[in-house]
Amino acid sequence: MSRPVVTRFAPSPTGMLHIGGVRTALFCWLFARKHKGTFILRIEDTDLSRSTDDNIRIIEEGMAWCGLDWDEGPVPGDPSRWIGAHGPYRQMQRMESHYKPAVDKLIAAGQAYRCRCAKEDLDARRAAVEAKGVPFQYNRGLDKGNGCRHKNHDASEPFAVRLAMPEGTEPWLEDGAIVWTDLIKGRLAFPAESMDDWIIARTAETCEIGVPTYNFCVVVDDTGMNVSHVLRGDDHVSNTPKQIALYHAMGYEQPEFGHVPMILGKDGAKLSKRHGATSITEYQEMGFLPAAVRLALARLSWTPKVDGQAPETAEEELLTDAQMIELFDLKDIQKSPARFDMDKLSWMNQKLVQRATWQELEPHLAHFMPAAWTTKDDEWKRIAIQATQKGKSLKEMGESLAFCWERPTEFDERAVEKFMTEPVKPALRAVAEQKDYAHDALQAAFNGILEAHNLKLKDLAQALRVVLCGKPVSPPIFDTMYLLGREEVLARLERWI
RNA sequence: GGGGCCAUCGUCUAGAGGUUAGGACACUGCCCUUUCACGGCGGUAACAGGGGUUCAAUUCCCCUUGGCCCUACCA
């Protein structure tokens, strides 16, 4: 393989970016980065009904949030522009320039033909064949010879275009089968006779070539964009032989194919809405770091090997992007599907949050904070972040800082009873006297207060938490006080002393 | 129904013709502790079933079962 590596992610705009698609994109991205190749984003919008600019925008934003940057593809939010020398990267914009000439060429060469079979006719034939318990396939099996393959229809009436699939004796077949060596699944073979003359261009209103179908566009585009490695979901395996036949018919050079296993839900069924979050934006809302999503997704069906060794410690599980890129190898990808494990994502996220610097976290955190967050200075943010950085998610961090923005309106009864004891109250008054809220100063002051009142830190800290937050849970008490500031602490203390 | 793929702890997985079948997450016990957490040290837990091949199979082969994908003028 001396071709430069070019991979591509080609989602269709369904209104959300599916987590499974992101994983496929991630593999394409890792592979391209690993081999210093090119990663393309292409929009498969030949399904006219759901391809809107908004839906395309969702894909672009989702990819960007995940940190999966593309070298060629659309310019986000601007349908008229793109980056890369092989555009446009939205299929509907390639109709006249790419697809129609290709279809014409196939018809002229006799590799494809016009089909005038009406919908009703097809339905009737399908019903007749299926009545015998056999699947219907156009110009195959029981339908062999019934179609338009040899009728040489001209373009004087509306028509669909079908590819003339191999009959089984063509020399490039192996034992009558279309065969390829999949980069992940190994050798795959499909009997040519099991595949019918599929439609490459739909019937149009006029007597012209209609909108081409997905399987056709993919081949034309992958070739036109010099894609060297087609890495895509397992669900495309059975499309591959159809496409290979098209590569032959067009005289195109065939790329390598690699089919990555599906992601299943917890119950082993295909991951869908009922398993919870499937859209990438939902993970953003749940407070996950993009890096954690990348890691968790990458580790489904892929085991990185360092000198042939899989990770042996928790530490080794936590790969950086750079490490993933370096280690990524298609041969370490599983053939079997994996179930999505939210717990592991959470754990990875927690670890990455813990080890990030406060500056790295800050931009992601802003999303989970009220507007007041932006008015705070760096020192305040630093302490706020470091005080809550043990949490599992950005969302949790935001929640545990909620006391900063809202005075407690109700107080945990049991906590009040337990911690607001008579011996504590004078200590609380002493705390109110304290002016310096720097950590060390508070520490020193508390030491004195505790000794003077014969209390343990726990007694005072818990009472203060109840006072300041309404509940016996908050960040470390000195941080809690600092974040509130003396004025606010006094205000919240007032009713208790 | 047809075509294709897959099968090690609950989950992600490592593994080799002979291992106490290893790790991570989750769960759980103990310790630490300024609350909640974090952290540290332990523990429970797996080769789907049946035939072969072999001195030996969880590992190689076949079958069964189960799961998933495809089977559109969707992508």
Percent of residues in β-strands:
5-15%
Q: Which regions have little confidence, pLDDT < 50, spanning 5+ residues? A: none
General form: elongated
**Largest beta sheet: strand ordering:** 5-6-9-10
Would you tell me the overall average pLDDT? Answer: 92
How many helices? 20
User: What's the assembly state of these chains?
Assistant: single chain
Secondary-structure class: alpha/beta
For the CA atoms, what is the radius of gyration?
31 Å
Main sheet summary: 4 strands, antiparallel
Structure overview:
This protein is an alpha/beta fold. Helices cover 41% and strands 12% of the residues. It has 20 helices and 14 strands. The strands form six sheets. Strands 5-6-9-10 form a four-stranded antiparallel beta sheet. A two-stranded parallel ribbon has the order 1-2. A two-stranded antiparallel ribbon has the order 3-4. Helix 1 links the parallel strand 1 and strand 2 (38-41). Helix 1 (19-34) packs across helix 10 and helix 16 runs antiparallel to helix 17 (439-453). It is elongated, with a radius of gyration of 31 Å. It starts with 5 loop residues before the first strand and ends with a helix. The mean pLDDT is 92. It binds one RNA strand of 75 nucleotides through helix 4, strand 6, strand 8, strand 9 and helix 5.
